[in-house]
Specification:
The protein is α/β, with parallel strands linked by helices and 634 residues long. The chain contains 16 helices and 25 strands. Strands 17-23-18-19-20-21-22 form a 7-stranded mixed sheet. A 6-stranded mixed sheet has the order 12-11-10-16-25-24, covered by helices on one side. It has a 5-stranded antiparallel sheet with strand order 1-2-8-3-6, with helices on one face.
């Protein structure tokens, strides 16, 4: 039995600790931190004149660790890693990694090669075709590889006969938009409108365009949270959605809160009609982008879970929310058959019987939507909403409320002194709203009047004050800012009066699940003895996970590892320049990598609703169009 060196044991321990949720970023960080040397892996180095040698160091259920030895000139065939992520570190010598695209005739064409030096780590998701080779004429190459999960199927490809040099570009400039929710769909539409010289490729991992999480519901009870008159997808066509809705139903009123499914239909129609009127080209790919890698000649190589890889000159990340994280992971005991981790998963809620009690974790808009879905048919068993603060979203006013002009008020709040405190800003806003209510006004006009100034207020806060806002004040702000349609609020109030829905302010601190039910122990917010509830189902409505986390989105993970993206310190999204360009690990803007949507929350806070997103999409598209004038090709 081989005795491992302390550093190798440290690496194995780190990989073990990652568990079954091991991510590309976590594996790459473990390799870098372990700082292996040639001495650490010497017992596994073996030369094989026939082909490179693979020596397994350890294999667990969720990963395997190997040492590979390459004689001068030895190389792997073009291959992929189906279903497994791979991180590679060069321990001795230097490696050349080749990236390939697969042509329609089945041959693999070399796109480019890059040098990986001693100590460097390169990593990729399970998308893409690559090779590794030892370019030296005399020196040995030794590499360490981690595959998670252990490598199963490996597909090998055939190089095009007579071709060993990178394939030249033969098409025009290409813009890849990753994600086809609102942000991606409208970025593509704006590119077709203002940059017809570009080939626009819109990639979406789901089966439908224009939906994302927000507009993918098929439940007619799920309504938009903004009146129809304010939901145009175009900044310069304010009545576009209202006009579209009236073509579907002439009775639609500007103040109506329409079904969210309609809005997904509207976005698809908008993209289709824009594509028909444009001289540009639009290609749709229904597949997940698994990796985006820098091309040495400029631009990017995009690799997908299915289908061929291709080269893009500019990439727009329009990645929205991912499923929520599990808030009960550390306190759940027993089988998890009765835990629904994501209420938006198809058919997830529809299978819950009406005569079985339900606990919903969270009390925001997603929780309210879930209540409405559960009560679409007559219900006899109760629903318990559990959240730490015990806050429900407020309702929109039944009649339109005019936002106040708060420019002078915001100037006064911020003053000219040092960075303000979040609590001081909150108190000032609260006093303003209370005075307005005392004078017979509506507090909503204050909250809505802050909308044009939210980014300025957020940017004035120091990182520590932003953190205090997130931990202490955010739930109160969001309950007032993100409101229910009046008819939704009326229905929820009716269900609470009937006793079918209760709200508990507290935190679940223990669970005991059986095949038939789940017992929850809840610590009340204001102290006192634990509160217990026995339910048939637990549904997680705590809110979406940030898409900047490597485990949440593969393409984000690959770009983070190689320094093309930077996470913000509060884990809200990504560091982004004011013009939408991503900021790399070196602190400079990446001029051909843009971000639109919720990932820009660290800079502006408000980056999830249509008014902000439609402006971002238009601005980024215009900046990309300026990079490639209509009379200039690549």
């Amino acid at each position: 039995m081989t005795t491992h060196s302390p550093r190798l044991n440290d690496l194995i321990s780190r990989l073990d600790d990652l568990g079954r949720d091991a991510t590309l970023a976590g594996i790459a960080e473990s390799l870098t931190t372990a700082a292996l040397t040639a001495e650490d892996v010497a017992p596994f180095v073996r030369s094989n004149p026939a082909m490179y040698h693979r020596a397994r160091v350890v294999q667990r259920g969720h990963y395997e660790l190997l040492v590979m030895t390459w004689l001068p000139g030895q190389a792997s065939e073009p291959h992929d890693h189906t279903g497994a992520v791979c991180a590679l570190q060069v321990i001795r010598g230097a490696a050349v990694e080749g990236e390939y695209s697969v042509a329609p005739d089945g041959f693999a064409d070399l796109e480019y090669e890059s040098l990986v030096r001693t100590g460097q780590v390169t990593a990729g998701q399970d998308g893409g075709v690559h090779t590794v080779r030892n370019p030296s004429a005399s020196d040995l190459l030794v590499t360490v590889h981690v595959y998670a999960p252990p490598l199963g199927e490996v597909r090998r490809y055939t190089c095009r006969p007579g071709s060993s040099v990178p394939r030249p570009r033969s098409d025009g400039p290409t813009a890849l938009v990753v994600g086809a929710g609102f942000s991606g769909t409208m970025t593509a539409a704006h590119l077709l409108r203002c940059a017809p010289q570009l080939n626009v490729v819109l990639a979406e991992r789901r089966g439908s365009l224009g939906e994302g999480v927000a507009y993918g519901t098929r439940d007619a009870a799920h309504l938009l949270n903004v009146p129809a008159a304010r939901m145009s997808a175009w900044p310069d066509r304010p009545t576009d959605f209202l006009e579209w809705a009236r073509r579907r139903d002439p009775a639609v009123h500007p103040t109506d809160f329409l079904p969210r499914q309609w809005y997904g239909d509207y976005l698809r129609d908008t993209l289709r009609s824009t594509a028909r009127q444009s001289r540009g080209r639009l290609d749709l790919i229904l597949g997940e982008v698994r990796r985006v890698a820098r091309h040495p000649d400029g631009g990017w190589m995009a690799h997908f879970d299915h289908g061929p890889s291709f080269r893009a000159d500019v990439v727009v990340l329009a990645i929205g929310h991912r499923p929520p994280s599990d808030p009960l992971r550390g306190v759940w005991a027993g089988p998890r058959d009765r835990f629904i981790p994501d209420p938006w998963r198809p058919f997830a809620v529809g299978t819950v019987p009406a005569d079985e009690p339900v606990a919903i974790l969270g009390s925001g808009l997603t929780a309210v939507d879930t209540v409405l879905s559960l009560c679409q048919t007559p219900r006899s068993a109760p629903i318990t909403l559990i959240s730490r603060k015990g806050l429900l979203p407020h309702a929109h006013a039944t009649a339109p409320v005019t936002p106040q002009d708060l420019a002078a008020f915001v100037n006064e709040l911020l003053g000219t002194g040092p960075s303000p405190r979040a609590a001081a800003l909150s108190c000032g806003i609260h006093r303003r709203a209370r005075k307005l209510i005392a004078d017979g006004g509506d507090w909503r006009s204050v909250v809505d009047g802050l909308r044009p100034h939210t980014a300025r207020l957020w940017q004035a806060l120091s990182p520590s004050e932003r953190s205090r806002f997130l931990s202490r004040l955010r739930p109160f702000w969001e309950a007032h800012r993100h409101r229910m349609a009046p008819q939704v609020a009326d229905r929820l109030a009716e269900l609470r009066r009937s006793g079918l829905v209760e709200l508990v302010a507290g935190q679940v601190v223990g669970t005991q699940a059986s095949p038939d039910n789940v017992r929850l122990d809840i610590a009340p917010r204001r102290g006192g003895p634990l509160v217990s509830r026995a339910v048939g189902w637990v549904i997680n409505c705590t809110g979406p996970a940030p898409s900047n986390r490597p485990e949440a989105n593969p393409v984000i993970g690959s770009l983070l590892i190689h320094g093309w993206l930077t996470r913000d310190e509060l884990s809200l999204g990504l560091e982004v320049a004011p013009d939408g360009q991503a900021v790399g690990a070196n602190g400079t803007a990446v001029t051909d990598l843009f971000v639109v949507g919720t990932l820009r929350k660290p800079q502006t806070w408000e980056s999830t609703a249509v008014p902000e997103l439609r402006l971002q999409a238009a601005d980024v598209a215009a900046r990309i169009a300026n990079r490639y004038p209509a009379d200039v090709g690549l």
